[in-house]
Amino acid sequence: MSQTLLETRGLTKRYGGLLVTDQVDLDIRPGELHAIIGPNGAGKTTLINQLSGELRADSGVIRFQGGDVGTLGIAQRARRGLLRSYQITAVFEEFTVRENVMLAAHGARRHGFSFLRSLLGQPDLAVIARKVIDEVGLAAIDGTLVGELAYGQRRQLELAMALAAEPRFLLLDEPMAGMSGQESAAVVALLQRLKGRYGILLVEHDMEAVFALADRITVLVYGRVMFCGTPEEIRRHPEVKAIYLGEEE
Ligand SMILES: Nc1ncnc2c1ncn2[C@@H]1O[C@H](COP(=O)(O)OP(=O)(O)OP(=O)(O)O)[C@@H](O)[C@H]1O
Prior knowledge:
This is Branched-chain amino acid transport system ATP-binding protein. By secondary structure, the protein is α/β, with parallel strands linked by helices. It has ten helices and ten strands.
């Protein structure tokens, strides 16, 4: 148990007659970057939604740091450090990048969002914000209003806000979707740096990124775990090659 940070057993979700996740067992270790791959409609997003608390599983168990979190809501899981990047907190368009990251850091400290402006004078929040803004590579535009950011910069901001909330585990659903080649390369480099510090579950269609980053990969097909292994094992697995990687080529 101590070797597992996030664990699921028999996680099952159905929509009518459709089994979207079917008895999913996962064991993700501290500091591991674990990717979930699978064809369109395999149930990857539905799985993340169940882990974040957005969706309640029909049956099965979710344990985080040894405790059952399956009945907790999104905010309660986030407070324990299990969080999905864009759900951290609201993004305020009329505030700057730095101010938004400071507010995310403040939110993590469980206060309300009243008196927003006065909070922004707090030096400890400024220190945390500077650190994570540097980390995600937004330092040059930390004074820019969020409403003026390009799409890729906004996604980087979401990551900065997630980090400001001091997570233990990050759920990332296609963090590179819609980004330019340069922006996604920056996110790959960022995740390389973050790896080992947090548990990370990554759903991503960019296979090059997945194979470069993942410690282990779970292949989901029609809601079922087909195989779990290292990138090398996945590459060599004949069925995975035929069903999934072949399709990508
Ligand atoms: N709210 C819903 N009601 C009914 N069916 C749903 C609902 N949400 C998802 N589904 C179905 O569940 C299946 C899995 O969807 P999901 O989005 O989890 O797959 P995915 O692996 O993330 O797909 P993609 O790679 O295309 O993002 C699909 O067949 C989808 O149509």
